[in-house]
Each structure stands twice: as structure tokens, then as C-alpha cells.
Amino acid sequence: MWADELAAGWLGVHLPRRWRHVQGVYERSRVADRLFSTGDADLLAAAGLVHDLGYAPELAVTGLHALDGARYLREVGAPERLCALVAHHSAAHLEAELRGMADELVDWNDERTPLRDALWWADMTTSPDGEVVTFEERAAEIQQRYGPDDVVSTFIQAARPELAAAVGRTEAQLRAAGIDYV
Ligand SMILES: [Fe+2]
Questions:
Q1: Cβ contact 94:159 at 8 Å
Q2: Which InterPro entries does the record match to this protein (predicted)?
Q3: CATH number of the domain located at residue range(s) 2-176 in this protein
Q4: What is the per-residue pLDDT across 4-15, written as a single tens digit (0 to 9) for each?
Q5: Of 17, 50, 51, 166, which sits 20 to 30 A from 116 (CA to CA)?
């Protein structure tokens, strides 16, 4: 899969921990794939693989990794829907506001669909090392890792209700489909 090669190329060598996280998010997205058509399941898997490309040092231009990743993906001709999913993943619009970059994301539409929720769920229930965690554990770890004064900690507090809602909607769908996700 091209998304796999892209993510391995940009993250695998220089950001091995981020690469483990991304592989975990990919695995998580595969758990949810029965909720979607084959095309959408593949899109979700691809989004899981490329959602954090903007952390690659060579691609980190603005410091808002969702935006940097989406811009790079657009440059290399990735489908627009995939770029938009990356641009808005895991409540990026709130981090953009905190960084004074809210206008930069208007290029992309946040589709607010079950697929978008499932990407957020996969990201928010995968640890930095790629292990499955609860959303509460994930949010607590982010705050601890960045420390109280970092914009990311402020962001995760502000984003908590929105993230928890997306996680909750996806987990309700998984339960309804009889899919074991823990
Ligand atoms: Fe992530």
C-alpha cells in the first residue's frame, strides 16, 4: 500500500516511536473496518498510516502537524478526502485556533462522518508506542508528556469533549456490530 511506504519512509527512520504509534493506529483502524464499505475501510486504513506525517522534521513547516501533513499529501497528489481527514484529525481545528492558525484549515472540509470519528477513535485509543489504551489513558499521557505549559496540553483539555464524543460514537457502533475492540 502506498500509504504504508510513505509513512515508513517519513517516520520509520527518524521517528521510530511515532512510527510505532502509526502502525498501532493502522491496526486499530482495521478492527473497525467491518463498519465500512471496502473503499471506505481502505481510506480509513490509509488515513491511519499517514495522519501523523506532519511530524516528520522535513515536513514540519508550521508546527501544526495535521496541517503540515495534509499540505504535503496534497502536494504529492493524495485524494482530497484523505488530505481533509488528515487536516482535521483528532480535533486539529482546536489546536489550530490555539496556535493562531484557524484560517489555514478552511481549505479542507471536516466531513464529520462515522469514518472521520473512527480515525479519531483509532488515534485516541493508541499509545505513543502503538499499544491499545483507553481514551482517558491517552489524554492523561499526552498531558503528562508535554507538561502543563505546552499548547498541546491546553489543546487536549479543550478538545476532550469533542474527542470523547467521537470515541464514544465509534465504540457504540463497534459494540452494536459485535466487534471486540479492547
Ligand atoms: Fe496520532
A1: yes
A2: HD/PDEase_dom, HD_domain
A3: 1.10.3210
A4: 999 999 999 889
A5: 17
